[in-house]
Structure to design on (675 residues):
């Protein structure tokens, strides 16, 4: 009897191990089988990734053959009739030694897997196959699968035919939702229909906030952690508070789709509690005695920061009045700097006082965050720091364990002065955080890493190359997200940028010896840290001369826009009333949804204060470098390049374009002078 029980237990254990093995196995595509090995220790498993691509895992070849290649063909067996496949580097070199390597091979000339019968490791000089695998006659390679529209229930939810692009990616075309749900998310799960037992997944921008309004938008969703389409039965637009399903679609069993380009990273260890704030950011914490230990983990670029702290409002995510920590890695050293926010701008000195996003130490406070550990691996920053629940700094807010805390977070880029620029990711709603939940909370999951380089999409760089240009108009407007200023310059942005003759930071060609005039509407209220931007031209690319160190100021040459006092201190001369382009009520996180600057510009309204513009007149001469920069005197990274030339090349601009630029400058001047 005991032996029978032991046998049954052993069988159950084996089945459980097998089940776990299947679940834990990474999906690489549709299997073609194991390479048949004939010579030179060839081995490996071959998969079809899609119609055009093969993947060989654990590939082995001793590399001792003199004329061996990856070789494919349509004949009944490997032979001289075939073609070479480029190796994993895209080259058709003679194969070298491989030992347990994973590599992708793409068929040349848009050939499809259905057009070949075999893949071989083949010696062309000896006409010998060292190893091969065959493609079955009725083989169907993985392709995207169309599974039908969302079934509409309520709240205006609708879509076009949904596509499963790969094992972790779902495309929803023409998606609409009226945004009226109370606690609504994209939710996936198991079972015959949607339920509150499902799991939230990030929206198309990685947010885990209550869904916004959509109107016929095409969005792409990615499943999180190690979840794939093989693990779920449905996708729903679901309100977790009311437990209402607004619209849903069934996921077919075992869809024949390509593997995801995302690789699952190891899960970051929690301190005690963990909350996934965004697809790219996790918060973990533990309260012990009078102190709180906080760990931020973010899938961010090297020059990025992670911010976390108290909102300036109990009910909304508000920057003004916020008390936050800015964490980043400077070389090999982690930082968790205490910041106080008094205005929506990087920190600047306004009439002798610091305003904006400023370090506590600059505004009379204390920096009482203590960094414990900081690491960066596989593009993930993990920074752990500690602070007293009740800080010694009277300007800091208290972490309360007996009530909910209203918190905010952000991800952005540090500028060249190691100060935070405008954040790229931030919440739509305030985070109500219980510091001592029971039982411990953990909504975090493993980050996923893209295995292939993603091409960054940016708007076309505007250029003004006009030999007849004499007058320009400079106004302010939003910098346009990662497709705008950041994408065009590669620099972080404070959120505002110069618009010259209606274009966002155009590169402008000017000729030495010609006098130019710029009418400037940069704001002339020196009490404002956000909207006071005198226009200057310098020989360095960042700007913000007023906030530079003494050493940096001495190394910077200001070519136009200032006067010097008797003590050789620069004083700006060209500010003018404020003319500002503003978004028509839409969320700036959607800036990157615009396919072009033209479309983005159409979405903006112009607001101008009364008054005449400041007039800056200058004449480039032989002492000017070939490339100089227009900037704000007080804020860095708001302008871009001026190309200074001795003569204009012929044929670069048509007569019509020259006349258009000239008329545009006159028209903008007339419009602004009438406001």
């Amino acid at each position: 009897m005991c032996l029978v029980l032991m046998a049954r237990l052993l069988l159950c254990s084996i089945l459980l191990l097998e089940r776990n093995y299947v679940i834990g196995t990474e999906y690489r595509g549709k299997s073609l089988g194991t390479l048949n090995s004939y010579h030179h220790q060839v081995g490996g498993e071959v998969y079809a990734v899609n119609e055009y691509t093969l993947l060989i895992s654990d590939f082995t070849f001793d590399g001792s053959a003199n004329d061996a290649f990856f070789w494919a063909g349509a004949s009944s067996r490997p032979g001289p009739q075939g073609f070479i496949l480029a190796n994993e580097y895209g080259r058709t070199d003679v194969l070298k030694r491989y030992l347990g390597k994973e590599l992708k091979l793409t068929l040349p000339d848009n050939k499809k897997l259905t057009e070949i019968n075999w893949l071989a490791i083949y010696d062309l000089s000896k006409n010998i196959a060292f190893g091969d695998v065959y493609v079955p006659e009725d083989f169907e390679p993985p392709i995207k699968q169309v599974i039908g529209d969302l079934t509409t229930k309520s709240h205006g939810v609708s879509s076009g035919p949904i596509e499963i692009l790969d094992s972790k990616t779902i495309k929803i075309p023409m998606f609409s939702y009226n945004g009226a749900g109370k606690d609504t998310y994209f939710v996936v799960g198991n079972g015959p229909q949607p339920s509150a037992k499902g799991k939230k997944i990030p929206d198309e921008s990685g947010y885990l906030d209550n869904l916004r309004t959509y109107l016929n938008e095409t969005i792409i969703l990615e499943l999180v952690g190690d979840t794939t389409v093989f693990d779920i039965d449905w996708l729903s637009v679901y309100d977790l508070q009311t437990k209402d399903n607004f619209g849903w679609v069934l996921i077919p069993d075992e869809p024949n789709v390509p593997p995801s380009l995302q690789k699952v990273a190891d899960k970051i260890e929690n301190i005690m509690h963990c909350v996934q704030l965004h697809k790219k950011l996790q918060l973990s914490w533990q309260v012990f005695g009078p102190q709180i230990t906080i760990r931020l983990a973010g899938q961010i670029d090297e020059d990025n920061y992670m911010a976390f702290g108290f909102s300036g409002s109990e009910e909304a995510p508000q920057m003004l009045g916020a008390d936050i920590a800015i964490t980043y890695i400077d070389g090999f050293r982690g930082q968790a700097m205490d910041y106080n926010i008094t205005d929506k701008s990087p920190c600047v000195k306004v009439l002798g006082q610091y305003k904006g996003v400023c370090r506590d130490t600059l505004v009379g406070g204390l920096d009482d965050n203590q960094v414990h550990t900081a690491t960066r691996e596989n593009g993930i920053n993990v920074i752990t720091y500690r602070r007293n629940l009740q800080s010694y700094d009277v300007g800091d807010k208290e972490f309360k364990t007996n009530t909910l805390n209203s918190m905010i977070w952000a991800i952005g880029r540090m500028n060249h002065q190691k100060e935070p620029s405008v954040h790229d990711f931030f919440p739509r709603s305030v985070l109500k955080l219980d510091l001592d939940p029971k039982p411990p909370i953990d909504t975090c999951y493993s980050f996923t890493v893209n295995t292939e380089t993603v091409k960054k999409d940016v708007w076309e760089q505007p250029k003004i190359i006009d030999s007849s240009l004499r007058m320009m108009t400079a106004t302010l407007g939003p910098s346009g997200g990662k497709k705008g200023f950041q994408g065009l310059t590669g620099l972080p942005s404070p959120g505002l940028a110069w618009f010259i003759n209606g274009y966002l930071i155009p590169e402008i060609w000017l000729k030495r010896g010609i006098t130019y005039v710029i009418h400037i509407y940069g704001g002339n209220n020196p009490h404002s840290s956000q909207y006071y931007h005198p226009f200057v031209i310098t020989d360095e690319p960042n700007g913000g001369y007023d906030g530079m160190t003494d050493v940096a100021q001495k190394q910077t040459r200001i070519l136009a826009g200032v006067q010097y006092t008797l003590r050789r201190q620069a004083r700006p001369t060209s500010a003018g009333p404020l003319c500002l382009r503003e978004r028509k009520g839409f969320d700036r996180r959607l800036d990157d949804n615009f396919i072009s600057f033209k479309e983005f510009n159409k979405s903006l309204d112009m607001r101008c204060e009364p008054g005449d513009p400041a007039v800056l007149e200058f004449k480039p001469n032989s002492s000017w470098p070939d490339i100089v920069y227009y900037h704000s005197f007080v804020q860095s990274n708001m302008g871009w390049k001026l190309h200074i030339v001795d003569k204009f090349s012929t044929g670069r601009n048509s007569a019509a374009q020259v006349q258009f630029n000239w008329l545009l400058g006159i028209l903008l001047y007339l419009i602004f002078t009438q406001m």
Remarks:
- The chain has five helices and 49 strands.
